[in-house]
Amino acid sequence: GRTAAVIPAAGRGVRLGPGAPKALRALNGTPMLIHAVRAMAASRAVSLVVVVAPPDGAAEVKALLDTHALPERTDFLVVPGGDSRQESVKYGLDALPPGVDIVLVHDAARPLVPVDTVDAVIEAVRDGAPAVVPALPLADTVKQVEPASEPGMPEPVVATPERARLRAVQTPQGFDRATLVRAHETVTGNVTDDASMVEQLGERVVVVPGHEEAFKVTRPLDLVLAEAVLARRRA
Ligand code: C5P
């Protein structure tokens, strides 16, 4: 069967500061979304990319895809997104044609993921894992806190998970299509990644090595880093 990539790109990007929806902001003159689309289409295994656009921005996103050079061998679809990332991914899944059996879900906000990482995720799904996430060890120690007893008071620390066993997870996350669709039909509640929905089904989720260039562009400093990575690639 085919492998498709769903790119949720409907977020406002509030943490990045005021401006256009995050996915449409430029990195070295090219919208972040176009970088992300090219990163998925760079994999020879990916034959379809579904972009989930801001609800009122589907036409604009279609026009963007038409005006930027993209691989001939890849099909592209644009669908409008929803209020939450989860809802946006669901609309992307709903647009997949028959014959697609592996689905990647990739944040538009991770425009620089290398193709080797994309291929490693696909390979692990092909090898039988229902869900695969690229992940990196943490540099920082992580603390679990409780809400402060009253506003303005410091938050008490309640636990320090063993850092060596923690991973920061990235995208693209790869899935057996039927498993991800079932997760979206079954799991409710707020989630911050797609694999956690599959975990809630009790299905096996595994990690493959992530890449430092697959970081998420979230805050203004991330834009500086992303443009530096692009400059280094061109050097
Ligand atoms: O907000 P967060 O950083 O988790 O967003 C991750 C990705 O999800 C971004 O690419 C963003 O555009 C997308 N998103 C979406 N629909 C929403 C909210 C976020 O497609 N309603």
From TrEMBL:
Top-rank lineage group of the source organism: Bacteria
Site residues, Transition state stabilizer: R15, K22
Organism, scientific name: Streptomyces olivochromogenes
One record GO biological process: isopentenyl diphosphate biosynthetic process, methylerythritol 4-phosphate pathway
Gene: ispD
Key word Chaperone present: no
Gene3D superfamilies named in the record: Spore Coat Polysaccharide Biosynthesis Protein SpsA, Chain A
Site positions (Positions MEP for the nucleophilic attack): R163, K216
Family, per entry: Belongs to the IspD/TarI cytidylyltransferase family. IspD subfamily.
Sorted UniProt keywords: Isoprene biosynthesis, Nucleotidyltransferase, Transferase
Task of the protein: Catalyzes the formation of 4-diphosphocytidyl-2-C-methyl-D-erythritol from CTP and 2-C-methyl-D-erythritol 4-phosphate (MEP).
InterPro entries linked to this entry: IspD (IPR001228), IspD/TarI (IPR034683), IspD/TarI_cytidylyltransf_bact (IPR050088), ISPD_synthase_CS (IPR018294), Nucleotide-diphossugar_trans (IPR029044)
One of the record's GO molecular function terms: 2-C-methyl-D-erythritol 4-phosphate cytidylyltransferase activity
PANTHER family: 2-C-METHYL-D-ERYTHRITOL 4-PHOSPHATE CYTIDYLYLTRANSFERASE, CHLOROPLASTIC
Name of the protein: 2-C-methyl-D-erythritol 4-phosphate cytidylyltransferase
Catalysed reactions, as listed in the record: 2-C-methyl-D-erythritol 4-phosphate + CTP + H(+) = 4-CDP-2-C-methyl-D-erythritol + diphosphate
EC number(s) reported in the record: 2.7.7.60
SUPFAM superfamilies the record matches: Nucleotide-diphospho-sugar transferases
Pathway: Isoprenoid biosynthesis; isopentenyl diphosphate biosynthesis via DXP pathway; isopentenyl diphosphate from 1-deoxy-D-xylulose 5-phosphate: step 2/6
